[in-house]
Design brief:
mainly alpha; coiled coil; Endosome-associated-trafficking regulator 1; ENTR1
């Protein structure tokens, strides 16, 4: 009887130790799961931030292109005015020479 009791006690001690190890693994797994979820949430936030930044860059690019077109149009208008002033200057020179 005492051998059986000692064996049972030894078995129970091993099972308690195994149970404690399994409980520790379970806690670690839960912590790892929480960390992974937090990482996924961070990744989702980073993706959303990247999408917002992309949309803002596209708007800025579009606006910049429109501004460049306006600048080019204004430069062309100024060139026309300069050419017109040169023509007026030539006409006035011709008029002065002809008088």
């Amino acid at each position: 009887m005492t051998k059986r009791a000692a064996k049972a006690e030894s078995s129970a001690a091993k099972l308690r130790q195994e149970n404690a190890q399994l409980q520790a693994e379970l806690r670690n797994s839960r912590l790892e799961k929480e960390a992974l979820r937090a990482g996924q949430a961070g990744l989702a936030a980073a993706k959303q931030n990247a999408e917002v930044a992309l949309q803002q860059l596209l708007r800025v690019t579009s606006s910049s292109r429109a501004s460049i077109r306006q600048l080019l149009s204004g430069a062309e208008s100024l060139q026309l005015v300069a050419d017109l002033l040169k023509s007026i200057d030539r006409i006035s020179e011709v008029s002065e020479d002809g008088q």
